[in-house]
């Protein structure tokens, strides 16, 4: 394999346009995440579709933690996240190795921008009676249209073209996305990887082999952990959560806007740091910060938010700050890296199949958390934050012992330079077994 240092690239307008247009899939996903929680808190929406929930919401003696406990309401929210994404794979394949982390995080950045825009829209439309919720949901078509028309000018990835025997077009595409003519070294590596991939007739079967387990396990576990940080529970239901603490409708939506701003701003930290600091350090630092924030929120709610009544305004403001601290560290770590790491750890021959597992796992876990959160909040009350804290502790242990560092390693060198060097995963990388699979 050629060393990544000899890969030449230059950032051109076309290259940046490809990155941004592809990342619009993230904006569409983020808008759906942000819009559903705000719409679910709007009285007009609840009156039309969930009158019983609205009735409970207005009942002064109703349990604070159970106002929104309704399976149909949760199904409305969770059903928006069953659509799959392939965007991170595309970004990983077109990004130069030295900027792969930052480019791939564009997806997560656009997710956070989508959430922020959704929060702003919800804040504005909450005062548009009785059809504000219709405007909020209808505007979801805008990023979809941009992605649709933008896809018409996006180039196919060089690996995709070479895999289909279009070598000339593949090299031309590589020149376009690198912005230079001297791409021979990288092109030869792409061709070599494609030749290996062609020998694998059944990628899903290959994915089940022993030597493919390390990236598959990492990919699936990263998606499970990303959701069990509790981030989507907070982002889906930020307005609902803040109302539970005693904020009025407009104030709760404004608080959601604040967390959205923090989410976007913090993602820029990851874009800057991921290829300098590395993946593992960002993840471990975030585990510590998220654990402290979640346990603190849980402790405050446990002591000060009872079944009826509201919290002291000062304490409620502290909770909002803690939520922002939590969102901040997620946005520069498990949010973007949960997508980046699976997209760069699979070899070419199983990359599409492997990432399909990762995406499916993420969508399923997102659906599960969205479907269960309000019921969990009702039954577990403040202890739900300790539940997520326990998962964060498990995540930190996982990173320490099982997650290798992939910073600066070319995708097609991952097996040799990562898996075969790792004290645990190298036991799965049996070269003779690989050769028998290729035969």
UniProtKB/TrEMBL annotation:
UniProt cross-references to PROSITE patterns, sorted A to Z: MFS, SUGAR_TRANSPORT_1
Main location: membrane
Residue ranges of domain Major facilitator superfamily (MFS) profile in the record: 1-407
Matching InterPro entries: MFS_dom, MFS_STP/MST-like_plant, MFS_sugar_transport-like, MFS_trans_sf, STP/PLT_plant, Sugar/inositol_transpt, Sugar_transporter_CS
Annotated GO CC locations: membrane
Domain of life: Eukaryota
Entry's transmembrane regions: 12-31, 72-91, 103-121, 133-154, 216-240, 252-275, 315-341, 353-374, 380-403
SUPFAM superfamilies per UniProt: MFS general substrate transporter (SSF103473)
CDD domains given in the database record: MFS_STP
Membrane topology, from the record: Multi-pass membrane protein
A GO term for molecular function: symporter activity
UniProt-annotated location(s): Membrane
Keywords in alphabetical order: Membrane, Sugar transport, Symport, Transmembrane, Transmembrane helix, Transport
Family: Belongs to the major facilitator superfamily. Phosphate:H(+) symporter (TC 2.A.1.9) family.
Protein name stated in the entry: Sugar transport protein
Organism: Actinidia chinensis var. chinensis (Chinese soft-hair kiwi)
Taxonomic lineage: Eukaryota, Viridiplantae, Streptophyta, Embryophyta, Tracheophyta
């Amino acid at each position: 394999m050629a060393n990544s240092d000899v890969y030449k690239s230059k950032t051109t307008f076309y290259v940046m346009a490809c990155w941004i247009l592809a990342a619009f899939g993230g904006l569409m996903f983020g808008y759906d995440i942000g819009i559903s929680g705000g719409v679910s808190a709007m009285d007009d929406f609840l009156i039309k579709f969930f009158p019983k929930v609205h009735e409970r919401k207005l009942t002064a003696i109703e349990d604070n933690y159970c106002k929104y406990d309704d399976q149909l309401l949760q199904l409305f929210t969770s059903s928006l996240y069953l659509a799959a994404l392939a965007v991170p794979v595309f970004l990983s394949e077109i990004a130069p190795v030295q900027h792969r982390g930052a480019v791939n995080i564009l997806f997560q950045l656009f997710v956070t921008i989508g959430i922020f825009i959704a929060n702003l829209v919800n804040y504005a439309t909450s005062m548009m009676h009785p059809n504000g919720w219709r405007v909020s949901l209808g505007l979801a078509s805008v990023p979809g249209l941009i992605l649709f028309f933008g896809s018409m000018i996006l180039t196919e990835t060089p690996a995709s073209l070479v895999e289909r025997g279009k070598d000339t077009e593949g090299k031309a595409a590589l020149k376009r996305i690198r912005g230079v003519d001297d791409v021979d070294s990288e092109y030869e590596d792409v061709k070599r990887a494609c030749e290996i991939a062609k020998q694998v007739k059944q990628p899903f079967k290959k994915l089940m082999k022993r030597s493919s387990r390390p990236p598959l396990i990492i990919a699936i576990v990263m998606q499970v952990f990303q959701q069990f940080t509790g981030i989507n529970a907070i982002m889906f239901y930020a307005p609902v959560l803040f109302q539970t603490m005693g904020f009025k409708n407009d104030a709760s939506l404004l608080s959601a806007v604040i967390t959205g701003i923090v989410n976007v701003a913090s993602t820029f930290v990851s874009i800057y740091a991921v290829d300098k600091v590395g993946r593992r350090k960002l993840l471990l630092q975030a585990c510590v910060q998220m654990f402290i924030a979640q346990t603190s929120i849980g402790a405050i709610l446990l002591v000060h938010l009872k079944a009826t009544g509201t919290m002291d305004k000062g304490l409620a403001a502290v909770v909002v700050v803690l939520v922002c601290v939590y969102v901040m560290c997620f946005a520069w770590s498990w949010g973007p890296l949960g997508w980046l790491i699976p997209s760069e750890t699979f070899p070419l021959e199983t990359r599409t199949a492997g990432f399909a597992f990762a995406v499916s796992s993420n969508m399923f876990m997102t659906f599960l958390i969205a479907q269960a959160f309000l019921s969990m909040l009702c039954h577990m009350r403040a202890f739900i934050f300790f539940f997520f804290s326990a998962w964060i502790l498990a995540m930190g242990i996982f990173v320490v012992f099982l997650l290798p560092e992939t910073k600066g390693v070319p995708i097609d060198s991952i097996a040799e330079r990562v898996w075969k060097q790792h004290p645990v995963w190298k036991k799965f990388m049996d070269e003779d077994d690989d050769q028998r699979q290729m035969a």
